[in-house]
């Protein structure tokens, strides 16, 4: 007997055993506990329905727990999806279904609808979260092959902003619709496409701002003029926490999530109260969306700007307003600490509370834009000495120029007046008017007769 044969037979034996084991492993898969798929680093992988590509078994309830570190997000791509269709009578997914549960940073579960055979849904499911649970349930025997779902754990640096949609026939401002900040930037300005002239209609632009995981983002609205009435039909600007999970499948708990989003419609004059024009994220991501309707937009002119403009700033920490005097408890600020100040609700009545004191990057000091909380200009305050010096110098130079010009003009005027006087006296001596009045004197308008 030769060696190759025994090698062959033993490998075949192992192969068959392995197959059987696989078979057995799959068959014993009524999924008694969640299938844990955890990767710390960005990666991709695939989850299959039990027995795939053979029909999935009867009576299973499988939970796939896809999770990664908090800075990564999970995306799903459905490459194959074949479950029993919806019941003809009740139109429900009764025989088998899959539920996508998105778990957000606070551990809240956002439970999607049941999906089953023949359903129309997005084949690519992109979240801003790092944990997704897939729950697969089957109740009947079937010949359906189940599903194959690719998962992607994507690092924070490569998260894209949500897709922008642009349906205006005039595509002039399309490039300004949506975007994301450059890595490492500490502040920025975002304006609506076409600002300050107008804005396109029927668009949905999305911007993603992402800063260091230890930072939060402060947003201040500078301009807003979408319409003159507080009416969201023309357009809505929404500013949301970038960790917020938007439910594509259902809108049931939208109300519960309202606090993680601020919406602005109409005009800035409707948001006069201090604090209404600003927003602070709970995490290091900010999502901004500008959606307009089909109504004809406003047109800006020399006096009024149309659209919106906002400024965002990365803040390292918020010095706790309530811990006044307890400096030990305050987070250390190694960069610039805004001065804060008092926010008084009713003037003269002493209803005041300390304003938030932000800790911001030192590079934002004297950048020409106030980056502290609303009404706190302390980051632009200390630069006034150099500014005054520069602008004072410029003003002095301008003054000298003006004086020089005035003197020059004055001299020229006098010169020409003398010449004029001389020439006219020459003329008058040869051709004097009969009444003897100087020729250059204006005639007084006649008083209207009453
Ligand atoms: C999913 O996995 C994460 C991380 O491994 C864990 O913290 C979480 O409890 C799991 N969830 C479920 C429902 O098993
Ligand atoms: C707005 O866009 C939608 C596509 O989402 C399109 O069906 C609709 O006709 C557009 N409306 C107008 C008034 O342009
Ligand atoms: C908004 O823009 C319109 C169109 O230019 C203008 O008539 C209106 O006065 C502006 N509103 C404010 C409050 O600036």
Supply the key terms.
450 residues, alpha+beta, Jelly Rolls, 2 domains, six-stranded mixed beta sheet, six-stranded antiparallel beta sheet, 2 helices, 23 strands, 16% helix, disordered N terminus, binds 2-acetamido-2-deoxy-beta-D-glucopyranose
The structural domain count equals: 2
What is the helix/strand order?
HEEEEEEEEEEEEEEEEEEEEEEEH
CATH topology of the largest domain: Jelly Rolls
The largest sheet is: 6 strands, mixed
Strand content: 25-35%
Which radius of gyration do the C-alpha atoms yield?
36 Å
SSE-based structural type: alpha+beta
Our count of helices gives: 2
Tell me roughly what share of residues is in helical segments.
10-25%
Oligomer: single chain
The small-molecule ligands in this entry are:
2-acetamido-2-deoxy-beta-D-glucopyranose
Distance between the termini: 142 Å
Shape estimate: elongated
Number of strands: 23
User: CATH superfamily name of the largest domain?
Assistant: Spermadhesin, CUB domain
- CATH architectural name of the largest domain: Sandwich
Name the poorly predicted regions: 1-8, 19-28, 247-258, 323-328, 426-446
């Amino acid at each position: 007997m030769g060696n190759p044969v025994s090698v062959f037979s033993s490998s075949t034996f192992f192969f068959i055993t392995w197959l059987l084991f696989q078979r057995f492993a799959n068959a014993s898969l009524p999924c008694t506990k969640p299938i844990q798929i955890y990767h710390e680093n960005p990666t991709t992988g695939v989850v299959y329905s039990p027995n795939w590509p053979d029909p999935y078994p009867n009576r299973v309830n499988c939970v796939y727990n896809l999770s990664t570190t908090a800075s990564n997000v999970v995306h799903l791509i459905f490459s194959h999806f074949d479950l029993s269709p919806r019941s003809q009578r009740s139109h429900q997914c009764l025989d088998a279904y899959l539920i996508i549960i998105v778990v957000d940073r606070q551990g809240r579960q956002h439970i999607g609808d049941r999906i089953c055979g023949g359903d129309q849904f997005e084949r690519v499911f992109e979240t801003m979260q790092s944990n997704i649970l897939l729950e697969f349930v089957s109740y009947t025997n079937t010949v359906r092959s189940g599903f194959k779902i690719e998962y992607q754990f994507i690092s924070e640096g490569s998260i894209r902003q949500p897709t922008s949609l642009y349906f205006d026939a005039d595509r002039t401002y399309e490039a300004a619709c949506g975007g994301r900040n450059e890595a490492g930037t500490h502040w920025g300005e975002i304006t609506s496409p076409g600002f300050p002239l107008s804005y396109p209609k029927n668009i949905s632009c999305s911007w993603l701002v992402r800063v260091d995981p230890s930072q939060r983002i402060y947003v201040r609205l500078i301009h807003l003029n979408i319409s003159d009435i507080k009416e969201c039909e023309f357009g809505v600007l929404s500013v949301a926490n970038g960790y917020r999970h938007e439910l594509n499948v259902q809108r049931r708990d939208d109300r519960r999530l309202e606090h993680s989003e601020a919406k602005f419609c109409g005009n800035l004059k409707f948001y006069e109260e201090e604090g209404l024009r600003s927003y602070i994220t709970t995490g290091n991501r900010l999502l901004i969306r500008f959606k307009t309707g089909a109504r004809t937009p406003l047109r800006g002119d020399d006096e009024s700007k149309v659209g919106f403009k906002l400024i965002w700033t990365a803040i390292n920490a918020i010095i706790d307003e309530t811990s006044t005097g307890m400096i030990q408890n305050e987070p250390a600020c190694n960069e610039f600490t805004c001065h804060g100040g008092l926010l008084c609700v009713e003037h003269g009545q002493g209803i005041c509370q300390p304003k938030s004191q932000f800790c911001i990057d030192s590079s934002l000091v004297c950048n020409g834009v106030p980056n502290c909380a609303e009404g706190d200009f302390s980051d632009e305050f200390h630069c006034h000495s150099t500014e005054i010096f520069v602008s004072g110098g410029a003003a002095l130079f301008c003054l000298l120029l003006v004086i020089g010009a005035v003197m020059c003009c004055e001299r020229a005027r006098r010169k020409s007046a003398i010449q004029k006087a001389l020439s006219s006296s020459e003329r008058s001596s040869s051709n004097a008017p009969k009444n003897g009045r100087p020729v250059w004197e204006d005639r007084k308008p006649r008083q209207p007769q009453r």
